[in-house]
């Protein structure tokens, strides 16, 4: 019997196995971190409205997204510095997603290269782009295209880095500074320390492998000092570079969603960066209905999702899929590749159970009749 039966169980274990500096980086948010709570509170505030005496003996949570079928309305979100949590973390996440039949989004600041992940995982691979320098961005896009990635995800909510006070207090960054405090904390977490010593210091592999970058770009990416001059005009430039599906991630305003589609985006990801950028911003569930009312293209959502019921609620509102970030990383920290498998199994089981309990047999059946929104959202 295991005591790891929910995503929350994996979160608690990840806190035990990771040094504080890494757990704080994983768990922390921007500013006073109140947006972390708002993301969760808004999901709790949406109530499910079950319909009974229906035949729910067979359920099917398969969903079609951009012409490709997936096992669930779920994807693994782009997250950086996963190799500091587990060496090979990006490959582990990608392989787990492939086995689960869902997309994996590789982040620009990954510790495994675009090409390495493509060789090691045969699932639906998406690439998330941070624009640090235009020449570097063009090269990364070309590499993702050559490696067979199906979808490009442009993150737009990082013109500057959010005020992440935990990271600032801990002096977090790469390379990790081996202060006496970190060395002592590492000694208290021997499993992590052993893996760290065997694998060496994680690097920003996509920049190391790039011919168009140097140490300045790497340092800028670590500090999230991206190209703050990137505008709608540049989105049109990126659209010309990428011939496949293009998503814009970090949208919180309906008018921005509409403009992104007008500039050629194939879909929108409603995201507040997991509460890690503008700490005073809205929760994604609060703004999701307004974005959906403004665009006809697929709309995905992330930030704060921890259960299958959370995912069902978002789909009932009209989201095409939900991206999970921290939830997958809790599994990675607690159990490596097998831990990610377990977290994905938990979420898919919870989706299936929730659908049965509300009287829905297919993802396509889920709509607003199954949810009750807080009166304050109207």
TrEMBL record:
InterPro entries: Aldolase_TIM, Alpha-hydoxy_acid_DH_FMN, FMN-dep_DH, FMN_HAD, FMN_hydac_DH_AS. The keyword Nucleus does not apply. Belongs to the FMN-dependent alpha-hydroxy acid dehydrogenase family. It comes from Geodermatophilus maliterrae. Residues 1-376 form the FMN hydroxy acid dehydrogenase domain. The keyword Oxidoreductase applies. It comes from the Bacteria. Its cofactor is FMN. PROSITE patterns: FMN_HYDROXY_ACID_DH_1, FMN_HYDROXY_ACID_DH_2. Keywords: Flavoprotein, FMN, Oxidoreductase. This is Alpha-hydroxy-acid oxidizing protein.
């Amino acid at each position: 019997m295991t005591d790891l039966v929910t995503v929350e169980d994996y979160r608690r274990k990840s806190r035990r196995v990771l040094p504080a500096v890494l757990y704080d980086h994983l768990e922390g948010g921007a500013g006073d971190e109140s947006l972390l709570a708002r993301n969760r509170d808004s999901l709790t505030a949406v109530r499910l409205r079950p319909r009974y005496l229906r035949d729910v003996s067979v359920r099917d949570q398969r969903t079609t997204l951009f012409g490709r079928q997936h096992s669930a309305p779920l994807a693994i979100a782009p997250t950086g510095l996963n190799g500091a949590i587990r060496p090979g973390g990006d490959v582990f996440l990608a392989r787990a997603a492939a086995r689960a039949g869902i997309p994996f989004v590789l982040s620009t600041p990954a510790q495994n290269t675009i090409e390495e992940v493509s060789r090691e995982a045969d699932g639906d691979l998406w690439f998330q782009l941070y624009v640090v320098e235009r020449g570097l961005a063009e090269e990364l896009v070309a590499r993702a295209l050559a490696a067979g990635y199906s979808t490009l995800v442009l993150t737009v909510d990082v013109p500057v880095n959010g005020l992440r006070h935990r990271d600032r207090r801990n002096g977090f960054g790469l390379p990790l500074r081996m202060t006496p405090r970190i060395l002592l904390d590492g000694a208290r977490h021997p499993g992590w320390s052993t893996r760290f010593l065997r694998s060496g210091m994680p690097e920003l592999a996509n920049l190391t492998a790039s011919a168009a970058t140097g140490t300045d770009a790497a340092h800028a990416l670590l500090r999230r000092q991206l190209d703050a001059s990137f505008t709608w005009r540049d989105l049109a430039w990126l659209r010309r570079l990428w011939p496949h599906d293009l998503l814009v991630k970090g949208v919180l305003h309906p008018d921005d969603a509409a403009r992104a589609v007008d500039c050629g985006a194939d879909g929108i990801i409603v995201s507040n960066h997991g509460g890690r950028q503008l700490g005073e911003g809205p929760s994604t569930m609060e703004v999701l209905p307004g974005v959906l009312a403004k665009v006809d293209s697929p709309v995905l959502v992330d930030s704060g999702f921890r259960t299958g019921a959370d995912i069902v609620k978002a789909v009932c509102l009209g989201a095409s899929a939900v991206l999970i970030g921290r939830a997958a990383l809790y599994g990675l920290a607690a159990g490596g590749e097998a831990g990610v498998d377990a977290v994905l199994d938990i979420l898919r089981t919870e989706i299936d159970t929730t659908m049965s309990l509300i009287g829905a047999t297919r993802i396509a059946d889920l709509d607003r009749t199954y949810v009750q929104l807080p009166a304050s959202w109207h």
